[in-house]
Design a protein that fits this description.
Number of domains: 1
Low-confidence stretches: 1-16
Radius of gyration: 18 Å
Number of strands: 0
Structural class: mainly alpha
CATH topology: Alpha-lytic protease prodomain-like
Largest sheet: none
CATH superfamily: Cation efflux protein transmembrane domain
Length: 161
């Protein structure tokens, strides 16, 4: 399956709103994976699954920022932005990188707390199955975003993927 469509841009160089569909796909996938991973955490009590859910929250925030950036980037050039608003996509990509560090901090804090106060895991098989389903969804959507980002030269989609 190959996306052979040429990069779609406005006359001023900004991304067209059809790229927003991919951001909405990413938002939907993030909501589904947050629900699945949070449920798996509640079933098992696994800090690993809690950190995975926290990472999905980062994905949701990044997808919302990507949607905003794509809409801003689609605006035509104006008096203040002679070459258009395409650089908004770079802001989105940078913010996503920062959000990954925030998620890492949440994971470290959760891991230290669990290390100091250990407790046994429950329903590990079911929790792992749910986590795998969430990971497959995340992987498929991520691959689609990266492919669309490369095909359309959209940094925001590539970073979100």
């Amino acid at each position: 399956m190959q996306n052979a469509a040429p990069p779609k841009t406005s006359e001023q160089g900004g991304a067209l709103p059809d790229l927003a569909w991919y951001a909405w796909l990413s938002i939907a996938a993030a909501i589904v994976t947050i629900a699945l991973k949070s449920g798996a955490y509640l079933l098992t009590g696994s800090v690993g699954l809690l950190s995975d859910a926290a990472e999905s929250v980062v994905n949701l925030v990044a997808a919302v920022v990507a949607l905003i950036a794509l809409n801003v980037a689609a605006r035509p050039a104006d008096d203040n932005h002679h070459y258009g608003h395409g650089k908004a996509e770079y802001f989105s990509a940078g913010l996503e990188g920062l959000m990954i560090f925030v998620a890492a901090a949440v994971i470290v804090v959760s891991a230290i707390e669990r290390f100091l106060n250990p407790r046994p895991l429950e329903s590990v098989g079911l929790g792992l199955t749910i986590s795998v389903v969430a990971s497959v969804i995340n992987g498929l959507v991520g691959a689609a975003l990266v492919r669309a980002g490369r095909a359309r030269r959209a940094v925001t989609l590539s970073a979100d993927g």
